[in-house]
């Protein structure tokens, strides 16, 4: 038995909670990258989502997603022109939306979860998952907006700042 933040948990429960949080991290990462992908699609662009470290072995490679074998992966959504729909002709607002698509989708999930948590009476088991998913999405919004370099990639906050400084997105 180990006492964590006033809760007594045995080893089995700790492993279970760690596993749930790990899966929730991966799900939240996918939600975030899907947000970028949806905005890209709405703008008539093509996209490809990359999950994990590009120096690692490729686990899955399809038209829309490539997954590298990485234990704690970060993500990246690449957009590219489709036919005559060039990235360059997108408006300033739409280019900003592309950068913010990930956190916007995380925000939509936060709103949905708040509604679900408030209106549904959930058992402890489901409440643990929904609370963790809520917190993970809030954390993703905050962390992605902090202007920094992470895992060799620019955060969305830094990309937005660079974009308005140089009018180009790296
Ligand atoms: Zn992002």
UniProtKB/TrEMBL annotation:
Q: Which cofactor does it need?
A: Zn(2+)
Give the Pfam families listed for this entry.
Peptidase_M50 (PF02163)
Keyword list, A-Z? Hydrolase, Membrane, Protease, Transmembrane, Transmembrane helix
**What residue stretches are annotated with the Peptidase M50 domain?**
23-121
Subcellular location, principal = membrane
**Domain of life assignment:** Bacteria
Q: Where in the cell is it found?
A: Membrane
Q: How does it sit in the membrane?
A: Multi-pass membrane protein
In alphabetical order, the GO MF annotations are: peptidase activity
Q: Which InterPro entries match?
A: Peptidase_M50
Provide the transmembrane region boundaries: 20-39, 97-120, 126-146
The biological process GO terms on file are: proteolysis
Q: Describe the family membership recorded for this protein in Swiss-Prot or TrEMBL.
A: Belongs to the peptidase M50B family.
The name of this protein is Site-2 protease family protein
Q: State the organism named in the record.
A: Tissierella carlieri
């Amino acid at each position: 038995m180990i006492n964590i933040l006033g809760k007594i948990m045995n080893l089995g429960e700790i492993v279970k909670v760690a596993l749930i949080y790990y899966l929730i991290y991966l799900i939240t990462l996918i939600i975030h990258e899907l947000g970028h992908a949806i905005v890209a699609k709405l703008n008539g662009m093509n996209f490809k989502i990359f999950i994990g470290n590009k120096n690692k072995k490729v686990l899955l490679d399809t038209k829309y997603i490539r997954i590298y074998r990485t234990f704690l992966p970060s993500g990246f959504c690449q957009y590219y022109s489709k036919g005559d729909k060039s990235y360059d002709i997108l408006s300033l607002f739409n280019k900003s939306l592309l950068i913010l698509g990930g956190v916007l989708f995380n925000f939509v999930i936060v709103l949905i979860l708040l509604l679900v948590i408030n209106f549904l009476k959930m058992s402890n088991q489901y409440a643990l998952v929904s609370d963790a998913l809520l917190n993970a999405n809030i954390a993703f919004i905050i962390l992605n907006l902090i202007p920094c370099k992470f895992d060799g990639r620019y955060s969305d906050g830094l990309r937005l700042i660079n974009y308005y400084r140089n009018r180009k997105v790296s």
